[in-house]
Amino acid sequence: MDIGKRIAAARTAAGMTQQELADKLYVSRDLVLKWEQGKRRPDYGTAVKIADALGVKPDDIVKKDECVFRELNSCIPAGSGLSQEMLSALISRFLRERTQTDADIFIRKYYLLLSNAEIALYCGMGENQVRSRLSKTTKRLAKFLKEECENERY
User: Fold this and answer.
1) Which domain holds residue 75?
2) 30, 62, 94 — which closes off a domain?
3) Residue 15 — left, alpha, or beta (φ > 0 → left; ψ -120 to 50 → alpha)?
């Protein structure tokens, strides 16, 4: 079951309307609808808030590793056959080659699962700057992994 269906099921089980959930989270009903339809996906921090509002555990809405896998899956070359251990080692090597700030942002997003707002606050920059740096870093990661897989024939 995907995240949207889990949100809808938990909301229904809690006897709550989309509007009531939206009001509890200070978001629009339209955003709740988009989550439930799978048109938008909440980040992990938001999923935790949704779970709290619905009186369920965060894992009932989304597993941490699902968030990371979903976001980083596009970086992994198709058919690469990389094991989780090898992927972990390659990502560690990749991060050692980044600036400290870019590595910190990446780690806070994909290992600690912080929101862009939390990362921005920690790093003393705007959310758009965090989003931009993450985008550039994940594109570089995709290129790095592709080159590594071609060179090492994983």
Assistant:
1) 67-152
2) 62
3) left
Q: How many CB atoms neighbour CB 130 within 10 A?
A: 23
Q: Are 91 and 104 in the same domain?
A: yes
39 and 105 inside one domain: no
72 and 13 within one domain: no
Overall size of the chain counted in residues: 154
Q: pLDDT tens string for the chain (154 positions)?
A: 688 999 999 999 999 999 999 999 999 999 999 999 989 888 777 888 999 999 999 889 987 777 777 778 888 888 888 887 888 899 999 999 999 999 999 999 888 878 888 999 999 999 999 999 999 999 999 999 999 988 875 5
